[in-house]
Amino acid sequence: MLRLSGRTQKYIVYGVELFLVYIIQFTPSLLPAFFGERPMLLTVCAVSIALLEGDMVGMWFGMAAGLLLDAGSTAPFGFYALVNLSICYGCGLLVMYLMRNNIVTSVLLGFAATVLASVAQWLFLSGSSDFLYFIVHILLPRAVYSTATMPAFFYFNRAITTRLYDD
Questions:
Q1: β-bridge partners, 34
Q2: How many helices and strands, by DSSP H and E, does the chain display?
Q3: Nearest one of 64, 139, 69, 147 to 103, comparing CA atoms
Q4: Quick count: other Cβ atoms within 10 Å of Cβ 154?
Q5: What is the 3-state secondary structure (H, E, C) of 25-90?
Q6: How much is the average pLDDT of 81-88?
Q7: What's the confidence (pLDDT) of residue 3?
Q8: On the chain, which terminus has fewer CB atoms closer than 10 Å, C or N?
Q9: How far apart are CA 76 and CA 55, in angstroms?
Q10: What is the mean pLDDT of residues 85-110?
Q11: pLDDT band of 137, cuts 50, 70, 90
């Protein structure tokens, strides 16, 4: 019988989690809108994985989450993959070398990741030039809504990390 290592089991669970979050994020009317904006669940989920697994693993799962975002959006293919890859790599590095990995830093980095992804979207994909409107009506509601989901992702992924040990 085939026995998978704890690391492989973790990565499979993370992949399934990303796919389920993709389904939740892109199912119409499943999540209520907060001031007209929906959360960036895939970005927050990938950041929570990067916080627990480090820079390289977080980078790959950030890219996977970005590719799922690209598949569900009208952005040029690869845009969100590059953005999430960079964000998750940076978050993994910060937690490995500079910050403690706890709920406070996860919420702060989840907020920062959502803000960075939204600003990148506005800079490169939006035709609007009204930055104040973008901040008040798009960025803040999206960032607050996404950050509110970060503790659930953090504790779920921490439970996965502690239950499935690396061999």
A1: 37
A2: 8, 0
A3: 147
A4: 25
A5: HHCCCCCCCECCECCCHHHHHHHHHHHHHCHHHHHHHHHHHHHHHHHCCCCCCCHHHHHHHHHHHH
A6: 96
A7: 80
A8: N
A9: 25
A10: 95
A11: confident
Amino acid at 75: A
Find where tokens 């996965």 sit: 160
pLDDT at 1: 60
| The token pair that represents 94 in the structure block | 């910060």
Tokens at 52, concatenated: 């627990």
Q: For residue 48, which phi and psi values (nearest 5 degrees)?
A: -65, -35
Alpha-carbon distance 41 to 146, whole Å? 6
Report the pLDDT value the prediction gives residue 92, as an integer from 0 to 100: 95
Distance CA 65, CA 113 (A): 13
